[in-house]
Amino acid sequence: MSRTVYVNGEYVAEEDAKVSVFDRGFLFADGIYEVSSVLDGKLIDNPGHMARLERSLNELKMARPCSNDELLAIQKELIKRNNVTEGVVYMQVTRGAADRDFNFPKDATPSLVMFTQEKNILANPAADKGISIVTLPDIRWQRRDIKTVQLLASSLAKQTAKEMGVDDAWLVEDGMITEGTSNNAFIVTEDGTIITRGLSNSILHGITRKAVLKVANELGLTLVERSFTPEEAYDAVEAFSTSASSFVMPIIKIDDHILGNGVPGPVSQKLRAAYIAEAKANAE
Ligand code: PDD
Questions:
Q1: How many Cα atoms are found within 13 Å in the side-chain-facing hemisphere of 225?
Q2: 15-70: per-residue pLDDT in tens?
Q3: Residue 154: which domain range?
Q4: Does 210 share its domain with 227?
Q5: Cβ of 206 below 6 Å from ligand 1
């Protein structure tokens, strides 16, 4: 069955959804996006995603396509029309269509596209088993705090990981892990300390990262926000990644190093369960 998608003011069947070949998202990756997850037909952590969208727009001096209330109404309408109980809502804003010119157009209208994608986030076998990852060089641009659609470097890394027979990659810059291809990176040391890189322009300020840190704090776990090396990750007893589309994903192998007993560890499992409970309680 065809999905209903939203394109610039209209709800249309996916095969009829079109954007201009002159759209700056297409020509320059001059666009930003957000992915919000859906559980029980309700949006998870959505105010955080809306706030980050606003920040990305401001950082790129891009005009707003509409108000946050209107964005929320479109998200909800798509969830309803497509009967989504579990999955994600994707929204993308670009600077709009204009003759190809590196300078920003003066009078382009921003484009807004939204669609839903069904996904089993809770009953995900990968989360039960844990995933294997490799470390790869981080070749992305230097403003990773802005959630732009220029995802080729991340796509290449994810594809390389797949060709190496593993599930994902953590990216390394100046000898330190930055983050995963589409998630934030965490390790747990022998004494139970949870370590994740601090916020800067080097990583995306993950909405799930923030929520998981809050949950970890509430559980009385020890948290340290600092950069860490691949070697520290090899020696960790647990590792996991966080994102809106996978929540807390346990990692059991990094490069050739098996972590702990090679199964998802207690801290990762506890945080996954606590995050899901909190997310459901605050869903809208
Ligand atoms: N990716 N880091 C990067 C590079 C990401 O692309 C993402 C999210 C995250 C986690 O952010 P959040 O917790 O707000 O989802 C970190 C989304 C899910 C994607 O591109 O599909």
A1: 13
A2: 999 999 999 999 999 999 999 999 999 999 999 999 999 999 999 999 999 999 99
A3: 125-281
A4: yes
A5: yes
